[in-house]
Amino acid sequence: MTVPESDAAQIEVVRVFTDAAGRFGNPLGIARAAAVRDIDHQALAARAGYSETVVVEDPAEGRVRMRIYTPTRELPFAGHPTVGTAWWLNDQERPVKIIDVPAGPVEVTLTDGLTWARARAEWAPTFEFHEFADPAEIATLDAADFPDGKHYVWAWTNEVRGAVRARMFAPALGVPEDEATGAAAIALTALLTRGLNITQGQGSQIFTEWDSDGWARVGGRVAADHPVVI
C-alpha cells in the first residue's frame, strides 16, 4: 500500500518486557500527538502493524494523556503500552507519574531498572485462559489453533516461586500472537491473586504484583529500538 506523503509519520519504537540481556520484548509504536493530529490514528496503527501503537500528548505537571490502538481497534487500557511509554518519556527526560488512558489514571514508576504500571484488573480485556499441566506443551501451540477471540495459555514452571510460561493469541484484536502482554498478565494475576514472574513468547519477561483491593502492578525492562517512518 502506498501511503500519501502527507499521511506519513515517524513512529518511535521500544521493546517492552525484554529479558535481562535486553533480548526479545514486545515492540511498541509511539507517535507524538502533535505530529499525527491530522492523521487517522487507527489507520496509522494498522499500517504500523505492532500489537499496539500509542498516540501520546505532551506531558504536563507529571502526567500525560495517551490513546492506545491495536491494528483493528482502540483499547481503553493495555499493559505494555503504559510500561513502554513511561520508560520512553523518562528516556526523553520528560518523566511522568501518571498516564491517563481512557480506562483511568495509571500510576507509573521506574525502580532498579524496571518500569512499573499500576492499574485496575478489570481494565484489562476479557481473556480466555487455558492452563496446561506441562509447560513444554506451550511451545507446540500454533496461532492457527486460535482462529478467534483472545486467549492466554499458561503453565506453572515453578508454582512456589510464581513462575509461569505463557503465550497469547488474540485474532479478535488483529494480533495473531503477542510476544508479551501486560494486560493479560494483570488479568492472570487477578485470577490467581498473587504476584507472578511470567516468561511469554520467545523469552520476554513480565513481573506482576497483586493488591487485594483489585489493583495490580505490571512491570519489566524496556529497550529502545529504531524509529520507523510509515
Structure, described:
The protein is 14% helix and 41% strand. A hairpin with a 4-residue loop joins strand 4 and strand 5 (74-75). It has helices at 41-48, 79-91, 182-192, and strands at residues 10-18, 26-32, 53-56, 63-69, 74-75, 98-101, 104-111, 114-120, 128-131, 151-158, 163-170, 175-178, 197-200, 204-210, 215-224, 228-229. The protein folds into 2 domains: 5-111 and 221-229, Diaminopimelate Epimerase, Chain A, domain 1; 123-219, Diaminopimelate Epimerase, Chain A, domain 1. Helix 2 crosses helix 3. The mean pLDDT is 96. By secondary structure, it is mostly beta strands. It has an 8-stranded mixed beta barrel.
Nutshell version of this structure?
The protein is mainly beta and 230 residues long. The protein contains three helices and 16 strands. The chain is globular, with a radius of gyration of 17 Å.
In CATH, the architecture of the largest domain is Roll
Q: What's the overall average pLDDT, rounded?
A: 96
Q: Secondary-structure element sequence?
A: EEHEEEHEEEEEEEHEEEE
Please give the alpha-carbon distance between the first and last residues. Answer: 11 Å
Give the name of the CATH superfamily of the largest domain. Diaminopimelate Epimerase, Chain A, domain 1
The helix content is: 10-25%
Quick one: how many beta strands?
16
Which structural class fits the helix and strand makeup? mainly beta
| Spatial strand arrangement across the major sheet | 1-2-3-4-6-7-8-15
CA-based shape? globular
Runs in which pLDDT lies below 50 for 5 or more consecutive residues are: none
Major β-sheet annotation? 8 strands, mixed, barrel
Would you tell me which CATH topology of the largest domain applies? Diaminopimelate Epimerase, Chain A, domain 1
